[in-house]
Write a structure and sequence with these properties.
single chain; 255 residues; alpha+beta; nine-stranded mixed sheet; three-stranded antiparallel sheet; 3 helices; 12 strands; 15% helix; 33% strand; flat
């Protein structure tokens, strides 16, 4: 995963919103450094991990979609008896509400997700009342920040949100059971939202690099400290390099 390029004709929403970051630049730097240097599969020539860039604030566009469920989730299970009786179970989900966050850039940037208000919200859950309107005359996004261009308008978001919701509902099916029917899913697009992330890139040209031009990074959510993406030197090559050192072979033979 890497940062996508700018678009010639990106989607521009007339009423954008954003969530303020709660992770500081210093904390982002610390978390990224721990991730880079704390891996047990880090290269033995880790001193070549150089030029770690300052954390860059990156704003990723999302659509926030309100989701409502109507009906029941029907499953079928086989009760192991002398006659192998099939049992149908209806899981009540009528009235359950939640939301989907659908990435507004078609090229994969960061994962979209679905969360209900029933307690399965992910660590990066942000309540709707924390949304802030983006004032076009101000610069609240921070100096040097990068805003990822959007290319997904509101028209194509409903199907994507329902797909995320269906995926979340299938996880409610008990193990061994078969999903028979999903409830009706209602979706309403509510906001175009810029979500803060920190992107920390670094260089490494040692024995575990796959090629001479490969770039490495750690991406983390700007509100939850959750690592949402990363690319590091090859773990396999790093382990092989350590083994070659242990048996007295030149690790440069990996090249």
């Amino acid at each position: 995963m890497s940062l996508p390029p700018a678009l010639e004709s990106p989607y521009r929403d007339p009423k954008p919103h954003f969530f303020e970051p709660t992770v500081s630049v210093e904390r982002a730097r610390q978390l990224a450094d721990e991730r880079i240097r704390g891996r047990w599969t880090r290269p033995a020539d880790g001193h070549l991990l150089t030029k770690t860039a300052a954390p860059r604030l990156v704003w990723v566009p999302y659509w926030r979609v309100a989701v409502g469920l109507r009906g029941r989730l029907l499953t079928s299970d086989i009760v192991v008896t002398a006659n192998d009786i099939a049992r149908t179970e209806a899981i009540p989900v009528d009235g359950v509400s939640g939301y989907a966050m659908v990435c507004a850039r078609s090229a994969p940037v960061l994962l979209s997700f679905f969360a209900t208000c029933e307690g399965n919200a992910p660590p990066w859950h942000v309540a709707a009342d924390e949304l802030k309107a983006l004032d076009a005359t101000a610069e609240p996004l921070g100096p040097g920040a990068l805003v990822i261009d959007a290319d997904v308008g509101p028209e194509g978001v409903h199907e994507m949100a329902r797909g995320l919701c269906e995926k979340g509902l299938t996880q409610m099916v008990p193990g061994g059971a078969t999903l028979l029917r999903l409830p009706d899913i209602e979706t309403v697009v509510t906001h175009f939202v810029l979500v803060p992330h920190f992107w920390v890139s670094y260089e490494y040209r040692g024995e575990a690099a796959r090629n001479a031009t490969e770039g490495f990074f750690v991406a983390l959510h700007g509100r939850s400290e959750l690592i949402v993406g990363e690319s590091h030197p090859s773990s396999v090559r790093a382990v092989v390099g350590r083994i070659r050192r242990l048996v007295g072979l030149d690790p440069s033979g990996l090249r």
